[in-house]
Amino acid sequence: MGFFLPDNSLSNLERHGGEGRDGEGFLTREHSLHLQLRSAYPYIHKYPFPTQLRGCIAIMSDDSVMNPELVINHKFPQVTHTYSERDVALYALGIGACAKDALDDKELKYVYHEDGQQSIKVFPTFAALFSIGLTSQLSQLPGFAFDPRLLLHGQQYIEIYKPLPTNCLMQNKSSIVGLHDKGKAAILEIEVVSYEKETGEPLCMNRTTVYLRGAGGFSKSSQPYSFTKYPRDQTSSKTPKTQPFVVHEECTQPAQALLYRLSGDYNPLHSDPKIAEVAGFSRPILHGLCTLGFAVRAIIKTICNGDANLVKAISGRFLLHVYPGETLITEMWLQGLRVLYQTKVKERNRAVLAGFVDLNQLRSSSL
Ligand SMILES: CCCCCCC[C@@H](O)CC(=O)SCCNC(=O)CCNC(=O)[C@H](O)C(C)(C)COP(=O)(O)OP(=O)(O)OC[C@H]1O[C@@H](n2cnc3c(N)ncnc32)[C@H](O)[C@@H]1OP(=O)(O)O
């Protein structure tokens, strides 16, 4: 299992000659992980070894190597989750709602209820937060070895079964639905189905894919381990080569990640310059789900005429990191009731996110 060592641990290891039970040194293993990462990810030019690892090193010892069967058979306990109107409004601000125009008539309803409206509306991407609580459980998953600093969000798939209420007490059922050995990385897929606690009615489902750099190589390279409950291409889409139907451009704020984290994802990768550097970035990066929120908000604003209830399912693959303060350009294509989209960072002209949003119906007023 990957874990954080206390400050004095490195000297303890040195006292033991850095030896693991199989005769291979702990430090040698860490060193080889370091070399592996450097060759797979050249941008991790500053991955520190070994002195800067004091206080936050992930060690793979014999009793903590990846055991895929243990991982996929793990049963998460059911948990309750509650949120209020305040969480909903804070989330909307975190994904940039009303940032350009505080009185935006398509967005104000997601942060404030105007006269005659009983409660504020909820963006469908808010549902993704219901899976974030599992992050802390990942490091306790039996048989699961990874360095939390090298974790990246790979993909997110969300299905909405009914409009999300403004306040809710819900029950979350979580399970592991995929584990893949990609050599230089491991990919883990987790599904969370959320039910309204009082009625038992299903509200939404999240499938979260995490990409764990340096955690692969746990199976024979001739036959890499791969387990999935669903066909892999179910959530994938190809970005068309044709001219987009709509293009939406919007700046993120330099403090975007600091604001977004208050919605519940406190991963220091998004706020701590030292952790960001260890992870291979020049500074803290934006949460993938914040970028997804910006992209889906652009679709709701332009194609759904501001009506979030039209959204049925959302899929996104994170292709590259985004730095807070960068400008996001979201290109959209309509294919029946499916909106294909791609988000690029203007300053670097690189695609950072791609996927689709499925709608219940189209609003002629916005087309
Ligand atoms: C439980 C709740 C947990 C929630 C945790 C969320 C915590 C958050 O705080 C964390 C974050 O928000 S991190 C920020 C958002 N994410 C990112 O910035 C990642 C951007 N993507 C990348 O850098 C690369 O695509 C990268 C590095 C991901 C992959 O690049 P490469 O290593 O170059 O991959 P490549 O060689 O092209 O492909 C190897 C195999 O992996 C598959 N793959 C690639 N990108 C993937 C992705 N994004 N998601 C899923 N799978 C992916 C490829 O298909 C390939 O597999 P195969 O060989 O079978 O085709």
TrEMBL record:
Listed transmembrane segments: none
Domain Peroxisomal multifunctional enzyme type 2-like N-terminal stretches: 82-214
Highest taxon, organism lineage: Eukaryota
Domain MaoC-like: residue ranges: 240-350
GO biological process, one term: fatty acid beta-oxidation, unsaturated, even number
EC numbers for this chain: 4.2.1.119
Pfam families in alphabetical order: MaoC_dehydratas, MFE-2_hydrat-2_N
GO function terms (MF aspect): (3S)-3-hydroxyacyl-CoA dehydrogenase (NAD+) activity; 17-beta-hydroxysteroid dehydrogenase (NAD+) activity; 3-hydroxyacyl-CoA dehydratase activity; enoyl-CoA hydratase activity
Coiled coil region boundaries: none
Enzyme class per UniProt: lyase
GO cellular component, one term: peroxisome
Keywords: Lyase
Name of the molecule in the record: Enoyl-CoA hydratase 2
Source organism of this protein record: Helianthus annuus (Common sunflower)
